[in-house]
Design brief:
The structure holds two protein chains of two kinds. Chain A is an all-alpha fold. Chain A is built from twelve helices and four strands; from the N terminus they run ααββαααααααααββα. In chain A, the strands form two sheets. Chain A has a two-stranded antiparallel sheet with strand order 1-2. Chain A has a two-stranded antiparallel sheet with strand order 3-4. In chain A, a hairpin with a 2-residue loop joins β1 and β2. Chain A is globular, with a radius of gyration of 19 Å. Classes of the chains: A mainly alpha, B mainly beta. Chains A and B meet through α2, α9 and α12 of A and loops of B.
Chain lengths: ~290, ~100
């Protein structure tokens, strides 16, 4: 079986990603798949879908800046090569979610304006906390912030979105499926690389824990805005469209109020943070609930 | 060697053998795919030759029964794991850094 250096190689990435689950895809989904008509034709559902997709673009733009910035801060060649593949993964995510905005009717000339209009300020602050570490070429904080906190959040958010879309929007579910596969490698690198580095640099623990607490607060605030100000459930009910009975973390999302879904997602992500950070020797810091 | 079971301290002939079929998992190169499957959530159960990766939540499958002390490799997230017996007697995989 491959050793760590081989696992982080470009060859491994080529065989696992473009030559596997991305083979024959077009912007992450099968050619010809389209967004469902009822989302495109309903003004409220369309706006909510665009708003949610903007958050994905903002998050992935942050991940692209972070992973590319970490390349030159990495202390070894294998990590640099892995981060080069991650940079391409993140650039692909930015591209596929941006393409989704176009598929939803956003015109290219309106892209940046749409992102500015809908980008959640708390998600922007979340990104700023991380990118400040990257600017200082702080590899340990940067990898924990990027590959454990940001990617750990994305992993759970994408899993939830996948469950909600699998039966009603196969096109978007397929796009999410490919990004989830990418996230597996990213969180794996984060834990495996930092697990050993943090033991060599115990003096970094306090700073990393403070960063995790700050990022977690802004993440929870983003979730609160996204679920509490979301009109999708009410609009589906008004339009007489039954919500899919999607299973996520053992609950039926199809019968839950948005506030309850927010709670399930927040609890899932925070529990994962606690477990992952504990494994690498960092004490999870409970954030303030917004 | 393509099986994720990398090493064990005991005699492999005493273990039950399992014939692995493709489960549709496509996140690793083709020759490794039968050794992994997606966790199907509540209601899913692990077979005696399976362990769930705590890092990426993929189910790792060996062609041999897993025993405590076995070392596993999870190719989708590149983690090295050790099989341990939990207090309730179930087998769990722990990350080895």
């Amino acid at each position: 079986m491959a050793d760590t250096i081989d696992a982080y190689s470009i060859q491994n990435w080529l065989e696992s990603c473009p030559q596997s689950y991305l083979e024959n895809t077009e912007y992450g989904h099968a050619a010809g798949e389209k967004e469902p008509d009822f989302f495109l034709q309903n003004e409220v559902l369309l706006e909510e879908t665009i708003k949610a997709t903007v958050q994905l673009v903002v998050g992935e733009r942050c991940a692209l800046s972070a992973s590319s910035g970490l390349i030159n801060a990495a202390p070894d060649e294998a990590s640099r090569r892995f981060l080069a593949t991650q940079t391409l993964d993140e650039a692909r995510h930015v591209e596929v979610f941006t393409q989704r905005l176009y598929d939803l009717g956003v015109r290219k000339k309106d892209l940046e304006g749409t992102i500015q209009r809908y980008a959640n300020p708390n998600l922007v602050k979340f990104a700023e906390v991380l990118l400040e570490k990257i600017d200082r070429k702080d590899f340990i904080s940067g990898v924990v912030g990027q590959n454990i906190v940001l990617e750990g959040m994305a992993f759970s958010v994408f899993e939830m979105m996948y469950a909600m879309n699998e039966s009603v929007n196969p096109k978007f579910a397929h796009t999410l499926s490919g990004t989830i596969a990418d996230e597996r490698r990213h969180v794996g690198f984060g834990e495996n690389r930092i697990g050993s580095l943090i033991r060599e640099h115990p003096e970094k623990r306090g700073e990393v824990e403070q960063m995790q607490k700050e990022m977690s607060y802004f993440m929870l605030a983003t979730f609160a805005d996204a679920f509490r100000n979301n009109r999708t459930v009410d609009e589906l009910e008004a339009a007489g469209i039954e919500r899919p009975h999607s299973q996520y973390q053992g609950v039926d999302l199809g019968v839950m109020a948005p506030e309850d879904m927010e709670q399930v997602l927040a609890d899932t992500v925070l529990k994962e943070f606690k477990t992952r950070l504990g494994r690498i020797g960092i004490e999870y810091q409970t954030p303030t609930r917004p | 060697m393509v099986d994720p079971l990398e090493s064990s301290d005991d005699d492999p002939v005493q273990r039950r053998r399992f014939l692995l079929e493709d489960t549709g998992f496509d996140e690793v190169p083709a020759r490794y795919r039968r050794f992994y499957r997606k966790w199907r959530g509540a209601g899913d159960q692990l077979a005696p030759n399976e362990a769930i990766c705590p890092v990426c939540k993929v189910v790792i499958r060996s062609s041999r029964e897993l025993w405590p002390g076995d070392r596993l490799y999870c190719m989708p997230c590149m983690s090295r794991l050790v099989v341990v017996e939990a207090t309730d007697g179930r087998l769990e995989a722990h990350v080895s850094y």
